[in-house]
Write a structure and sequence with these properties.
Rossmann fold, 660 residues, single chain
Length: 660
């Protein structure tokens, strides 16, 4: 291990000073933001972007780059300053527009807005969850494609976390998981400044973080976060022949340099103010010019960019040699990058043998066996429920800490962590993940789903036990409001299929839609219907039965209630009430269709929604004079047939309600 040279140390000190300068000025210009972390972690940022990270700012999506995630996203100016200086596509003008409408420097880092930002962070703890997912993803890719003499995937994932991330429960979930799998490509840097937003950390937390992480199976290091030489030695020791995930506990002073605010919560979430800014710049020896960047810093990163380019060039040469030696692996590699499909895949899915009655959770698992075989980029896992939520791909082994060649991931009972890690898996650029649990437990992972939806990450949520008809487990496990609550999330497709055809359509859409999809799948068996179609379901809603007499009712149903609607229609038709039945498996896809199509499907007769969940939201389709048949109370513990009678989900009960 070489010591940090004096010249490099001086240069990194100048970079740290520049990060502080840009951060102070940007926050002041916006009159909004968090100066404390950029001031306190400037040396860490300077070391990472000035020396440690192996990346290419001119190609920020290079597959084998080291990745840095700012989990403590409120300190975004640390990241923006470093990205600008390092040569990413982030101009100084964007720095000056920090937190302004339309800028590429939003208040918290957003991967779809800013070049070089690896994931969207802000809600504390989710960044470390994404980091664990990315680290796992790189291990999975290495197991698939690394061959003797050719380590195509050997990058590391670094993430900077704060006290808030450490306290949030999600960090416990993902850190435990990372330790279990011995992810030796993951390095967490803990900004241990002992201050939280409300005051001293000691007011709310007194745990021993070092012992906690040792218990998880991590290697733990402690360092002065302002001492560049010590940082260099610590990172070198921690990452050399790394065998386990690493946490580096860096003692820092929040707001370092601010004479009246450093070390206090006052510098956490508000600008310094004009007077304190002048005092801080004077204390730090910072040039008085706004947004000043020394020529020496510019020159340093110009030279470094050439080295960064060379690193990718060397990898590209290695990749070309590897490709010539491994043509079959190269085809697989390309398929995983491009997410291509075999031309006959949908037909294979359509022809999958299904019994006369099968639950949609089991039906989905049958399709997964075909999809897993045909699509090498599909990886799946469950929150300790794979035998119940049916997420196991039978021909592939489980991922273990000594074998990452499997494609089934046992996330354990860590729903929120699983959701954040799934987004990280997708962010590798070569994996589409699906993850499973019971629908009612989607609430545990809701914020991870929300961020995936914000980023439009192609993650598939395989939620099962989708209604009161799961039966005897009772109201604690029976979803009522979950489907409606998921439908409220922008960019999320929610699919509640009725049978085989609608499952095929759902998976076809999920794997091609640029965004996340949530399936709501039944525990109970449902009939395989002759009336459904893949093509109709791909439009989100379609007519499965036309009215046989003068059009009196349109019954609109999803999932298990489509067959119920068909039986109800038979009774209504027998009374001379012409009844159309519409299946509406995906509201979002239906909303994308032309108005003329939607109006034609729904018709002008009295509209009735039938869904075994809350009626909230259905007025959108049935109108103010329509009828909503649902459940606006919690369920009960009983067999599913008894529950159907109790809550009015029988053809006779519905007819009685409609025909008075």
């Amino acid at each position: 291990m070489e010591n940090l040279t004096l010249d490099l140390k001086k240069q990194l000190e100048e970079i740290a000073k520049t990060i502080r300068h840009l951060s102070i000025d940007a926050v002041e210009a916006a009159n909004s933001g968090h100066p404390g972390l950029p001031l306190g972690c400037a040396e860490i940022g300077a070391y990472l972007y000035g020396h440690l990270l192996r990346h290419n700012p001119k190609n920020s999506k290079w597959l084998n780059r080291d990745r840095f995630i700012l989990s403590a996203g409120h300190g975004s100016m640390l990241l923006y300053s470093a990205l600008h200086l390092a040569g990413f596509d982030l101009s100084l003008d964007e720095i000056k527009k920090f937190r302004q409408l339309g800028s590429h420097t939003p208040g918290h880092p957003e991967s779809f807005e800013t070049d070089g930002v690896e994931t969207t962070t802000g809600p504390l703890g989710q960044g470390i969850g994404n980091a664990v997912g990315q680290a796992l993803g790189l291990k999975l890719l290495g197991a698939q494609f690394n061959t003797p003499g050719f380590d195509l995937f050997d990058a590391k994932v670094y993430t900077l976390v704060g006290d808030g991330c450490i306290m949030e429960g999600i960090s416990s979930e993902v850190s435990s998981f990372a330790g279990h799998l011995s992810l030796n490509n993951l390095v967490v840097i803990y900004d241990a400044n002992e201050v939280s937003l409300d005051g001293p950390l000691s007011d709310s937390c007194s745990e021993n973080v070092a012992l906690r992480y040792k218990a998880y199976g991590w290697d733990v290091y402690e360092v002065d976060g302002h001492d560049l030489a010590a940082l260099h030695k610590t990172f070198a020791k921690a990452t050399h022949d790394q065998q386990r995930p690493v946490i580096i506990i860096a003692s820092t002073v929040i707001g370092k340099g601010s004479p009246n605010r450093q070390g206090t919560f006052k510098v956490h979430g508000s600008p310094l103010g004009k007077e304190e800014t002048q005092l801080t710049k004077a204390a730090l020896g910072i040039n008085g010019e706004h947004f000043f960047i020394p020529e020496s810093v510019r020159s340093f990163f110009d030279k470094k960019l050439k080295d960064d380019n060379k690193k990718e060039d060397e990898w590209n040469k290695k990749f070309a040699a590897w490709s010539s030696l491994n043509p079959d692996l190269r085809k697989k590699f390309d398929q995983m990058v491009l997410k291509t499909w075999p031309k006959d895949l949908v037909e294979k899915l359509k022809k999958a043998p299904f019994p006369a009655a099968i639950s949609t959770r089991k039906g989905s698992q049958e399709l997964l066996q075909i999809l897993g075989h045909e699509l090498p980029y599909l990886y799946g896992g469950s929150a300790d429920l794979s035998g119940s939520d049916m997420t196991w791909m039978k021909v592939f082994p489980a991922v273990t800490n000594d074998n990452f060649s499997g494609r089934n991931i046992k996330f354990g009972v860590r729903e929120f962590g699983m959701g954040a890690m799934a987004s990280g898996l997708y962010e590798t650029g070569m994996i589409i993940p699906f993850i499973g649990t019971f629908l009612t437990f989607s609430d545990y992972m809701r914020n991870a789903i929300r961020l995936a939806s914000l980023m439009k990450s192609r993650v598939v949520y395989h939620f099962t036990h989708d209604s009161i008809f799961l039966g005897e487990d009772g109201p604690t496990h029976q979803p009522i409001e979950q489907v409606a609550s998921l439908r409220a999330i922008p960019n999320l497709h929610v699919c509640r299929p009725a049978d085989h055809n609608e499952l095929v359509a759902g998976w076809t859409s999920a794997l091609t839609y640029q965004g996340p999809t949530a399936f709501a799948l039944s525990r109970q068996n449902l009939p395989t219907l002759k009336e459904t179609s893949v093509e109709g379901a791909l439009k989100g809603g379609y007519v499965v039965k036309k009215e046989g007499a003068a059009h009196a009712f349109t019954l609109i149903a999803t999932g298990s209630e489509v067959s119920l609607a068909l039986h109800t229609a038979e009774l209504l038709e027998a009374q001379g009430k012409g009844t159309r039945v519409v299946s509406l498996p995906c509201w979002e896809l239906f909303d994308e269709q032309p108005i003329s199509y939607r109006e034609d499907v729904l018709g002008k007769a009295k509209r009735v929604s039938i869904e075994a969940g809350t009626t909230f939201g259905w007025a959108k389709f049935v109108g103010l004079d329509g009828v909503t048949i649902g459940i606006d109370q919690f369920g009960a513990s009983a067999p599913d047939k008894d529950l159907a009678k109790q809550f009015g989900f029988t053809p006779e009960a519905i007819v009685q309600r409609l025909v008075k």
